[in-house]
Amino acid sequence: MGKSVAILMTTYNGERYLSQQLDSIRSQTFTNWTLFIRDDGSKDKTIEVIQRYSKIDDRIRLVENPSKFHGAYYNFFNLIEYVKNNYQFDYYFFCDQDDIWKEHKLEIQLLRFSKDDMPEMVYSDMSTIDASNKLIDISINKIMGIELPNINNLYFIHAYIWGCTAGFNHALLEMVPSVDIDKDYLYIEKLSHDNYFAKFALEYGKVLFCPEQLVLYRRHGHNVTTSHHFKLSPLNVFRKAILGFNELALTHARVYNQTLYMLKKASGKNPLSDRLLEIQEVIKIGGLKGVRYFYQNRISRKQLVRTIGLYTIMLFGTYKKYIMKELL
């Protein structure tokens, strides 16, 4: 039997764009997939759209959501656990409700995986479109440099692996520690599922990049990642860094909190490697030790002014007041 794929999508008030995404999934050249959709209490006609599609295509399934925790990340982690506990597929792909997949997306990414017995994640470049499907940028990689330059960057910067482009194999799903939402709900509210999985893939397997633009990522005022500014002039970035220094420190702290949480979960399975212990120490201490680590490991952003901000926040330790003490 051929490869099997589970597509994991969460929805919330996605009526406006959902049909376009579902149509793009149904148009995939690779056809042996099952789409699991978990809604988070939509107030519009999202459920009606899902039910309509599930009637004409039995590969599309609506998953019940009895959780008391609501939000994009809670919903995704709950969906991951549901699929993990009830099904087994060869590969799993994250999916946003408002994007559009190129018809060869699954086919191309599946060919990129190398060894089925090694935990692997594959992600791709993407284009951006507006609310009317008008092309904004043909390649996010050219603008932001999302092809991971070195593995250490991901522990300090979340600008590379976008969940809407990412897929992973069963080996990675099995080795990533399950998230206890009832116990760890304070951490999970801001815990990016894609970067959580990516860090485990980096440490214990591989992360592979497809240079093709396989997703049309829709930028509008309601999606979770709209806050990412793809095109910022050096002057605007500098102004943002100066006027919003505390906000910048908070942004960095959120990334560091996610890294510390990943390290906490990883240490529950096996002793941390020396490399991970050093990363943990850098976040705890910061200052010159952190700057030295950044320099020695060539941790940087595509834009010089962003790199300066990264080093400045680490040097002065302004992120520390936002670090969750329970993770230290």
UniProtKB/TrEMBL annotation:
A Pfam family hit: Glycos_transf_2
Organism: Streptococcus pneumoniae
Protein name in UniProt: WciP protein
Gene: wciP
Gene3D superfamilies membership: Spore Coat Polysaccharide Biosynthesis Protein SpsA, Chain A
GO molecular function: hexosyltransferase activity
Superkingdom per UniProt: Bacteria
InterPro entries assigned: Glyco_trans_2-like, Nucleotide-diphossugar_trans
Domain named Glycosyltransferase 2-like: residues: 7-173
